[in-house]
Amino acid sequence: MPITLTIPEGLLSPAAQAEAFAGLTEAVIEIAGLSGNAFMTANVVGSINVLPKEHILAAGKPVEAAFVELKLPEIALATSEAKRVFIERATDVVERAAGGQLRREYIWSNIVYAPEGAWGIAGRSYDNADLVEAITASAA
């Protein structure tokens, strides 16, 4: 379940970047109700993209901002409430990590869904039933 955090240079220290990514990971696992699930935990992956300040834009102009993108299979965080809670938590996590250097209104989040059968881990294509089976087999 890849998470991509995109930020401008200098916004977050390396420690704050790690804190933010850990918080985003924890949020998606908790909201999915899968805390302690070995399969799920091992497969929340991602990247932190630190770009030159002039490459982070809002309204076509450079701005101190952060973007959180979460990619999921169709069955994950499937309810409107789960999506709402993730976006709220993701914003809280990034805002806290920024320590007052970033206004909340400059944190954008989105959730992107892969269609049935388009989820791959270690070269294996998983459909929704395969994912449920793998998650269930790893239940704590």
Task: List the keywords.
8 strands; alpha/beta; 140 residues; four-stranded mixed sheet; 4 helices; two-stranded antiparallel sheet; single chain
Q: Summarize the helix and strand pattern as letters.
A: EHHEEEEHEEEH
Query: If helices are DSSP runs of H or I spanning 4 or more residues, what is the number of helices?
Result: 4
Beta-strand content bin:
25-35%
Instruction: Give the distance, in angstroms, between the N- and C-terminal Cα atoms.
Output: 19 Å
Segments where pLDDT lies below 50 for 5+ residues?
A: none
Can you list the strand order of the major beta sheet? 2-1-5-6
Shape: elongated
What Rg do the Cα atoms give?
16 Å
Mean pLDDT rating: 91
Helix content: 25-40%
Coarse structural class: alpha/beta
Total strands: the figure is: 8
- What can be said about the biggest beta sheet? 4 strands, mixed
Summarize the structure.
The protein has 4 helices and 8 strands. It has 140 residues and is of the alpha/beta class.
Characterize the structure shown.
By secondary structure, the chain is an alpha/beta fold. The protein has helices at 14-31, 38-42, 80-97, 128-137; strands spanning 3-8, 46-51, 57-58, 61-62, 66-73, 107-114, 119-121, 124-126. It is elongated. Helix 1 runs antiparallel to helix 3 (80-97). The model has no long low-confidence stretch (mean pLDDT 91). 26% of the residues are buried. The strands form 3 sheets. A 4-stranded mixed sheet has the order 2-1-5-6, covered by helices on one side. Strands 3-4 form a two-stranded antiparallel ribbon. Helices cover 36% and strands 27% of the residues.
